[in-house]
Amino acid sequence: MDLAAELQKIYDSEINLSISWLWDVGITVRLGDEMNGFLAEETFADTAGIGPWLQQAIAHFYPDSAYALTLTDEVRQLAAQRLFRAPTIGRRVRCPHCGAPNAALEQFAFTCSRCNASVAVEQRRIQ
Fold first, then answer.
1. Considering the entire predicted model, what is its pTM?
2. pLDDT, tens digit, for every residue of 55-64?
């Protein structure tokens, strides 16, 4: 798989993602963005797994996107069955007052970007 070509297709489909790394810690890929929140994330030891993960994550979270519609039936089936790891920061939460998406960055509460209501963020429970 040509990772550069896949990233260009994803960009052209207007799907947001983030790729970052810290040497010897791994490459972290997040689907989503800082403003609207992230849907899933994964950390890789090398670049080989990034393309297949992105394909499955996009097929799972954005099944009707232009990019997802170009993927094979096999990828789409794997995506439907796969469990994705929730993001460690910047997870997406919806305002219970107006339904607008917001990003909750390690916060206990935030003000909704659309209706300005105060929203408490439920803390994740460690299993």
1. 0.74
2. 999 999 999 9
